[in-house]
Design goal:
By secondary structure, the chain is of the alpha/beta class. It has one domain: 3-Layer(aba) Sandwich (Rossmann fold), CATH 3.40.50. It contains six helices and eight strands. Helix 6 links the parallel strand 7 and strand 8. It is globular and about 45 Å long.
């Protein structure tokens, strides 16, 4: 995909996030902080148009970073549609890339896994996040992947709220690539 095509896709993603995912009001975030806006990225990431854009842009971002993961995934539910879109785009491009999901807690039945899908110990992976605020959920997903023997190449986020989460993840030793900064949404 050309740079011009990616630039247009990125503009479309910003517009889609602004139209579908950004809500103004009074909200309590997962971090416990209050905010006068909320980004429900799932309203974009679970849409057909969002899936197409995120697959294309996510795969391009992996290539731009030089990351060659075996799989992509992160903490359910936010990371799931993004990881699946990127894996699908890779398949369409003739590349082998799978997806996985990190549960908030290991299952208490069956084989008791915390990581589901296409993940094996030793895999090089990129952790996906829909929205970074404090970085806590991303670091939790990274810890789960590493505990199960995965090698984390970095983190790919759809939106960075620019509230210190990216710095926290990078301070822990993991490079972060962000598709859209919250300021680009008019916040």
């Amino acid at each position: 995909m050309t740079t011009t095509t990616n630039a247009l896709a990125r503009v479309r993603l910003v517009n889609l996030l602004r139209e579908r995912s950004l809500t103004r009001g009074d909200f309590v975030l997962a971090s416990g902080k209050r905010s006068n806006y909320y980004i429900d990225a799932r309203r974009t990431t679970m849409s057909g148009q969002g899936q197409a854009l995120l697959g294309t842009l996510g795969l391009a971002a992996l290539r731009d970073r030089g990351w060659t993961p075996r799989a992509v995934g992160g903490l359910t539910l936010g990371a799931d549609p993004v990881a699946y879109a990127i894996a699908h785009a890779a398949s369409l491009a003739g590349e082998s890339l799978d997806a996985f999901t990190v549960r908030k807690q290991a299952k208490t039945h069956g084989v008791g896994r915390r990581i589901e899908g296409c993940f094996e110990a030793g895999d090089a992976v990129v952790v996906i996040e829909d929205v970074i605020t404090t970085g806590r959920s991303t670091l939790d997903a990274i810890a789960a992947v590493r505990t199960d023997g995965g090698q984390v190449l970095g983190v790919l986020a759809v939106v960075d709220r620019e509230e210190g989460g990216r710095r926290a993840i990078e301070a822990a030793g993991f490079p972060v690539t962000v598709l859209v900064a919250v300021t680009e949404l008019g916040v």
